[in-house]
């Protein structure tokens, strides 16, 4: 069984992004990401700080904008700023705020985390668009592991607009045969245990165990579930699945670091357009 090393995959991506960012800088453009932070959530603050630090290392400026109320106008203003190339609003959102309602204010050309509903729509019809970085990370990790996706049976567990749906669309674009499961799926184990690749994006600790995975399958665990001792576990019971799967991404150290690297890659891509 192989643990797919997300930190190593992320380091390779960052090195390439740093080269591209340096070229842009030499030509007079500092690739810049603006992150709107709408709450005081502690985990969010930690994640945003890690994006800022990673950006500093590879030549992407990250501007953190704390805005609690006028989120739509704030995102529109940042989208109109020619010195900003990527715009995102960090979850969680304040109570009562609907993600789609505010994300429509992000210019799709700067929508580096694929939050504007039109980005997901473009992705669905095969037009160029930024996908959410986490969904991109799923495909990137599978490529890095050398998994053949064309013709593979892939089961995605979770159908959110942030992870499950865009991951399914990206995998479909890779010519995989994709099944999407969710909380109303009749028998999850029947679906997942026939898959060559299982992508878990559920948001509940250890929902998938030995009975869900076919021998030799590759498992991408997107879930990040906090434990009582301050740690983090995925949606997959890794210890139970290890003897069965061919490969699995660890939590932490799998999807997370690749997501951050790809988000910054998207900023550099947006800045070069
Ligand atoms: P979400 O919006 O809560 O969606 C969860 C999905 O899982 C829903 O589609 C839900 O089905 C489905 N589901 C829930 N319980 C299920 C069950 N028992 N069996 C089958 N399906 C079930 O969560 P999300 O935003 O997509 O995030 C998913 C996980 O990814 C979370 O742990 C989150 O922290 C993590 N995440 C990680 C990163 C990263 O960079 N590593 C980034 C983003 C998210 P219904 O649609 O029927 O409700």
UniProtKB/TrEMBL annotation:
Q: Which GO terms describe its cellular component?
A: cytosol
What InterPro entries does the record tag this protein with? Aminoacid_DH-like_N_sf (IPR046346), NAD(P)-bd_dom_sf (IPR036291), THF_DH/CycHdrlase (IPR000672), THF_DH/CycHdrlase_cat_dom (IPR020630), THF_DH/CycHdrlase_NAD-bd_dom (IPR020631)
Positions with a binding annotation for NADP(+) = 158-160, 224
* Alphabetized PANTHER family for the sequence: C-1-TETRAHYDROFOLATE SYNTHASE, CYTOPLASMIC (PTHR48099:SF5), C-1-TETRAHYDROFOLATE SYNTHASE, CYTOPLASMIC-RELATED (PTHR48099)
Q: Which residues form the Tetrahydrofolate dehydrogenase/cyclohydrolase NAD(P)-binding domain?
A: 132-272
Assembly and partners?
A: Homodimer.
What family name appears in the similarity comment?
Belongs to the tetrahydrofolate dehydrogenase/cyclohydrolase family.
Q: Which GO-annotated molecular functions does the record name?
A: methenyltetrahydrofolate cyclohydrolase activity; methylenetetrahydrofolate dehydrogenase (NADP+) activity
Keyword set for this entry?
Answer: Amino-acid biosynthesis, Histidine biosynthesis, Hydrolase, Methionine biosynthesis, Multifunctional enzyme, NADP, One-carbon metabolism, Oxidoreductase, Purine biosynthesis
Query: In the Enzyme Commission scheme, what number(s) does this protein have?
Result: 1.5.1.5, 3.5.4.9
Biological processes per GO annotation: L-histidine biosynthetic process; methionine biosynthetic process; purine nucleotide biosynthetic process; tetrahydrofolate interconversion
**Function recorded in the entry:** Catalyzes the oxidation of 5,10-methylenetetrahydrofolate to 5,10-methenyltetrahydrofolate and then the hydrolysis of 5,10-methenyltetrahydrofolate to 10-formyltetrahydrofolate.
Q: In which pathway does it act?
A: One-carbon metabolism; tetrahydrofolate interconversion
- Which residue range or ranges hold the Tetrahydrofolate dehydrogenase/cyclohydrolase catalytic domain? 4-113
Pfam families associated with the record: THF_DHG_CYH (PF00763), THF_DHG_CYH_C (PF02882)
Protein's name in the database: Bifunctional protein FolD
**Reaction(s) catalysed by this chain's protein:** (6R)-5,10-methylene-5,6,7,8-tetrahydrofolate + NADP(+) = (6R)-5,10-methenyltetrahydrofolate + NADPH; (6R)-5,10-methenyltetrahydrofolate + H2O = (6R)-10-formyltetrahydrofolate + H(+)
Q: Which domain of life is it from?
A: Bacteria
